[in-house]
Amino acid sequence: MANPQSFEPTTSTEQPNHIPKILPHERVFPIQIGSELFKLSGASISSDAPSYFSQYFRCQLQHAEDNGIDAASAIRTLYIDRDPATFRDISLHLQGYHVRPRDSTHFVRLFADAQFYSLPKLVSQLYEESIYTKIGQREFQIPRNLFADPGNSPNFFSLGFAAFFSESDSLFPGLDRKGLLRPPSIAPPAVPGRSADVFAELLHLLRGYPAHVRDEAHRAELLRDCRYFHFKGLEQRLIPHAISFNLARGRAEIVLRLRDILKSGIAIASEPTAADPAAAWVDYARPFVDETAHELVLEIGGESTRLQFTNGGMGLGGGEVDARAGFVGETGVRVAKMLEVVAAKLNLPPTVQPPGLLMADGGESTDSQLATPGNTPLSGDLVKVVLGPEASVVLDGKPWAPGAEELFGQVEGVDFESPPRKRRRVDTLGGTGEWIIKTGQWRLRIQGVKNGKAAVECCLVAVKLDALSSEQGRNVDRPFLGG
Q1: pLDDT value for 301
Q2: Can you tell me whether residue 138 is helix, strand or coil?
């Protein structure tokens, strides 16, 4: 029976401080770097081997043994024309000390020489070190764990530095070639064209501190550099948004601008009813940030929405107002792309060729072939809109509600005694009223429909609107340049 106090001796590979005997540990080997002579023991050189040094001196010892020459007289000084100041730190590493780069210049010099001398342990250590870089005119040391969040990695640094400081056998592929005098020159990593102050704020936020955005100009600075450095998770934290719980609806909701909507954040929340089994709402969760989705309240600004409705759709009895919304420019393209994503979430087949593939008869694309809501199975070019009694509407600077008959004339603008130009505008609309929406917030409702492109359609349910009924209303708000 074995003695319970006995144990098997560990092998050399299991001893963390074991130094392989590549060179005689007690012998001293001379290395001259530039103008300075270093004398390192065989133990120090063997501690990070195989390397340029261990191979050089092993060849000398092997030559002496093969020719019966005394080893002491056979060892010649190894001369390398490199920076002795950098090698002082490398010699400390070989003697067992932890060497940490001081700045980006020191980092690249250590890394280049560690590669050149083929020191596997030092290369591995430096590869796992903090990222040293200069942003603007300021040096930064960035712990790699700041990029552990999948929302912020891969990014400018992890992608660029992974290629720049690659594995030891690929950065200097000529290391084993005879006659290699020195590694290629490597400039310290720097991003001179960005603000050091803004980058320092981004690092502060990456460490988990709450964001304190002073104003929209400050937010724009932070978001611009988030996108430059590809900090996607941090960008989602900084985009303008409002999350709250709507007690009246019994749901959490998130308010977001149209330009900040991402495909991956859109979800469908089914709420079937006996009258409409297909009823649902569009939800949204900010990618990398929100764990659960909230009901989406979509904000569209920039006076890019035109609301049209007929006499019969004005809902003067106090009920819902049926209208149609048209969008101009980039807003129309964004709305179309969003509706296409919603249709895909509903497993609806596309109804037309993808925008951009449509070509005119002459083979050239035209502006009319840009993506529009009508290119999706959920809508026509004019998106259905519902103004319910719960909507907050300000028209020409005054509160408006369905049933306010005295305001209907402002919307219609019908005056047959007016000049022909004004009459033509009304006639062009076919007797419809028109609003320009300066800024609007909308919910996206999915509802069943008969005789449509698909079995369902998406309509915009007004939440809050700031609208103009005429050019005069816009001019009232127009400021003079002099203040």
Answers
A1: 96
A2: strand
Confidence of residue 252 (pLDDT cuts 50, 70, 90): very high
Q: Please determine, for residue 229, whether its predicted confidence score (pLDDT) is greater than 60.
A: yes
Q: How far is CA 89 from CA 22, 95, 208, 375, in A?
A: 22, 10, 34, 65
Segment holding 400, helix H or strand E: strand 398-400
Predicted TM-score (pTM) of the model is 0.78
- Tokens representing 386 are 């519902």
Confidence of residue 150 (pLDDT cuts 50, 70, 90): confident
**In sequence order, which ranges of 146-247 are alpha helices (DSSP H)?**
156-164, 168-171, 196-206, 216-229, 232-238
Helix, strand, or coil here: 459? strand
Residue 294, token pair as written in the block: 């909230």
Q: Say which residue the tokens 């964004």 belong to.
A: 334
Residue 264 is classified by DSSP as G
Question: Are 337 and 371 spatial neighbours (Cβ–Cβ below 8 Å)?
Answer: yes
* Alpha carbons 466 and 210: distance in angstroms, whole number: 32
- Angle CA(36)–CA(40)–CA(44) in degrees, nearest 5? 135
User: Which 8-state DSSP code applies to residue 49?
Assistant: -
Query: From the CB of residue 3, how many other CB atoms can be counted at a distance below 10 Å?
Result: 6
Q: How far is CA 109 from CA 86, 257, 347, in A?
A: 7, 47, 56
Q: What does the pLDDT look like over 302-311, one tens digit per residue?
A: 999 999 976 5
User: 217 falls in which pLDDT band (50, 70, 90)?
Assistant: very high
pLDDT tens sequence across 175-201: 444 455 566 677 888 899 999 999 999
Which residue from 188, 191, 225 is spatially nearest to 205, judged by alpha carbons? 225
> In this predicted model, what pLDDT tens digit does every residue of 428-477 receive, in sequence order?
333 348 899 999 999 999 999 988 888 999 999 999 999 999 888 888 88
Stated as kind and residue range, the H or E segment containing 91 is helix 84-94
Which residues lie below 8 Å from residue 174, measured CB to CB, with a gap of 6+?
180
Answer for the pair 66, 22: CB distance below 8 angstroms, yes or no: no
Q: Is the pLDDT of residue 420 over 50?
A: no
Q: Please state, in angstroms and rounded to a whole number, the distance separating the CA atoms of residues 26 and 31.
A: 16
Cα–chain center distance at 353:
29
Tell me the residue type at 94.
Answer: L
CA dihedral 236, 237, 239, 242 (to 10 degrees): 120
